[in-house]
Design brief:
By secondary structure, this protein is mainly β. 13% of the residues lie in helices and 35% in strands. The termini are far apart.
């Protein structure tokens, strides 16, 4: 009698961190949409994501993400991020990344304004956002 061996491949799915999740406009609470329209009446072709429990609206530019803003589920403003060229980051950001992240490439950059009006810079590497103050001093990983 001949024996047949069946090998069944399997797939494992891993979720790393709290990545942003695209959502449909109908999934965004009305209070959040109202807050967006009140603060940014000219925002058009808005796409939505849910990130860390907040709602993020994205619009503008070729990628549709030149401007991103976050609101809490209650509609409170959290932050605004404007995409900038990597060359517009403060001069000491690139050396910091090179020294602390094995020369990782900065994929995207942004200028951040929080709810208190304080400004920061954001440099995305390896799926993480590195946050720097206005002078380019490292603040945290977000």
């Amino acid at each position: 009698m001949k024996k047949v061996l069946f090998i069944v491949p399997f797939m494992a799915v891993f979720v790393i961190g709290a990545q942003a999740q695209d959502i449909k406009s109908k999934e965004v609470p009305a209070v959040v949409k109202e807050a967006l329209l009140k603060k940014y009446p000219k925002a058009t072709k808005v796409s939505w994501e849910k990130e860390k429990g907040n709602y993020e609206a994205n619009w503008g530019g070729k990628s549709g993400e030149d401007t991103s803003v976050q609101f809490t589920p209650a509609g409170a403003f959290v932050e605004e991020v404007h995409a900038i060229a990597i060359s517009q980051l403060p001069a000491n950001v690139a050396p910091y990344v090179k020294d602390h992240y094995n020369g990782a490439k900065i994929k995207e950059a942004g200028k951040v304004t929080d709810a208190n009006g304080k400004h920061f810079f954001e440099a995305e590497i390896k799926g993480k956002d590195l946050i720097f103050d206005e002078n380019g001093k490292f603040v945290k990983v977000d």
